[in-house]
Write a structure and sequence with these properties.
Blueprint lengths: L3 E4 L2 E4 L2 E2 H8 L3 E5 H13 L6 E6 L6 H9 L3 E4 L2 H9 L7 E3 L6 H10 L3 E4 L2 H13 L4 E8 L21 E2 H13 L3 E7 L10 H19 L6 E3 L16 H12 L5 E4 L3 H4 L3 E12 L4 E5 L8 H5 L5 E3 L8 E6 L8 E8 L7 E4 L20 E6 L2 E6 L4 H5 L9
Parallel strand pairs: 4-20, 5-6, 5-13, 6-7, 7-8, 8-9, 9-10, 9-11, 11-12, 12-13, 15-17
Antiparallel strand pairs: 1-2, 2-3, 4-14, 14-15, 14-19, 16-19, 17-18, 20-21
Helix pairs in contact: 5-6, 8-9
Bound molecules: pyridoxal-5'-phosphate.
Length: 417
């Protein structure tokens, strides 16, 4: 459920006609619905009612300060993968004691930053990282709270680029090595072992992979408790999928039930790191048709948003529905919807049945709230687009469109030239 609906042939975000925003802000822009973001967060959170839990929104899905602030106000925590995300989270008002830090490549300065502000825990992905965190904590006279990210070797049945819980993936530590890791961690002076973590992938559309992962984690926890290593937190990561096209992922309620059942007797606090399921369908990308080009083999709709603005189609072959902002009468066409970039991979849709979009028409690229703007780049010296949030009948530019000065910020021509 989202709040992007037609009224009298025109697409609205909540109570604001999208055409109106395009007139004020220009195109392209990302557009987020406050009501949808809030609803998705609360639906997910409420699904775990009665369970001691913390919802740590996965910052990398959408890091706009306004989005993070909204979740902070709803009591949310944050899952970060970099010092930059930590900075943003704190700026948005997320309390450090609700922040968990994942990622295989944490740098020394990032570790120091996280230690100094006092985050909830580090999700450790290798023994060398564990040693480094112990050293840094010693220097800073802190104790580092950690979980080990376990790789349960389950197949999440999703796109290979976004599956992370297989033995061949770079993430986590396999279950046997994890026991060893916990033993080592238990001996380290500046480490406080508090949890266990796993994240098996993204855009997962069944509950079974989560259940399998949890069963493997449970076995491990029992083994660890036998060794007198106490586990207070289970972090189940994120990964719940959404409907882009015709997928039917489990409702958060169903997902929650399967997890709750499994951890009932474990006496742990649950941490969840949802990203896509909260923000994916709460955002769209609005673009404008620049040209129509009837090719010999194909018809092309050339729009002003490209792969630098939304890379998912090019990177993952991802599907995003495309809707006209003002409904168009008459026959649909089959076309490639492409951007202005000099790459064949620069498309938003291929061989797609779309409305008979003409020069100047606005279109909405749906389900673009997750891994949309955050993955955008300045490739081809294109300006990063604006981000806008709607609440009821109001809208606000939550990130200004870049200008040409931004493009060369920090660049300098050396004196020897
Ligand atoms: C990306 C990521 C998430 C969020 O994944 P979604 O599929 O967007 O829910 C959560 N935890 C970790 C460790 C991640 O890397």
């Amino acid at each position: 459920m989202h709040h992007f609906n037609y009224r009298d042939n025109e697409l609205y975000c909540e109570d604001v006609p999208i055409k109106l925003i395009a007139e004020k802000v220009g195109t392209p822009f990302y557009l987020y619905s406050h009501a949808t973001l809030k609803r998705h967060f609360l639906t997910f959170n409420d699904a775990f009612d009665g369970v001691d839990r913390l919802i740590c929104f996965s910052a990398k899905a959408n890091t706009n300060l306004a989005v993070l602030k909204l979740f902070a106000d709803l009591g949310g925590g944050l899952d970060i993968v970099s010092g930059g995300e930590l900075y943003r989270g704190l700026k948005a008002g997320i309390p450090p004691e609700k922040i968990v830090y994942s990622g295989v490549g944490k740098r020394k300065d990032e570790i120091d930053y996280a230690l100094s502000v006092g985050i909830l825990m580090f999700n450790i992905e290798s023994l060398e990282e564990l040693e480094l965190i112990n050293d840094r904590a010693g220097l800073l006279k802190k104790k580092a709270p950690v979980a080990i990210r376990v790789n349960p070797d389950v197949d999440p049945k999703t796109h290979p680029y976004i599956s992370t819980g297989l033995e061949k993936n770079k993430f986590g530590i396999d279950t046997d090595a994890a026991i060893e890791g916990y033993k080592i961690a238990g001996e380290l002076k500046n480490i406080d072992v508090i949890g266990i973590d796993c994240h098996i992938g993204s855009q997962i559309t069944e509950v079974e992979p989560f259940k399998d992962a949890l069963n493997s984690i449970k076995t491990l926890i029992n083994e660890l408790r036998g060794l007198n290593i106490g586990i207070k937190y289970i972090d189940m990561g994120g990964g719940l999928g959404i409907t882009y096209d015709d997928e039917s992922p489990p409702h958060p309620g169903e997902y929650a039930r399967s997890i709750i059942q499994a951890i009932e007797d474990m006496h742990v606090k649950l941490i969840l790191e949802p990203g896509r399921v909260i923000v994916g369908n709460a955002g769209i990308l609005v673009a404008k048709v620049l040209y129509r080009k009837p090719g010999k083999a194909k018809e092309f709709v050339i729009v002003d948003a490209g792969m630098n603005d939304l890379v998912r189609p090019a990177l993952y072959d991802a599907f995003h529905a495309i809707k006209p902002v003002v409904e168009i009468e008459g026959e649909q066409i089959v076309a490639d919807v492409v951007g202005p970039i000099c790459e064949t991979g620069d498309f938003l849709a291929v061989d797609r049945r779309v409305a008979d979009l003409r020069q100047g028409d606005l279109l909405a690229v749906m389900s673009a709230g997750a891994y949309g703007f955050v993955m955008s780049s300045n490739y081809c010296s294109r300006l990063k687009v604006a981000e806008v949030m709607v609440r009821d009948d109001r809208f606000h530019v939550i990130r200004a469109r870049q200008n040409y000065e931004h493009l060369i910020e920090g660049e300098s021509i050396p004196p020897f030239l």
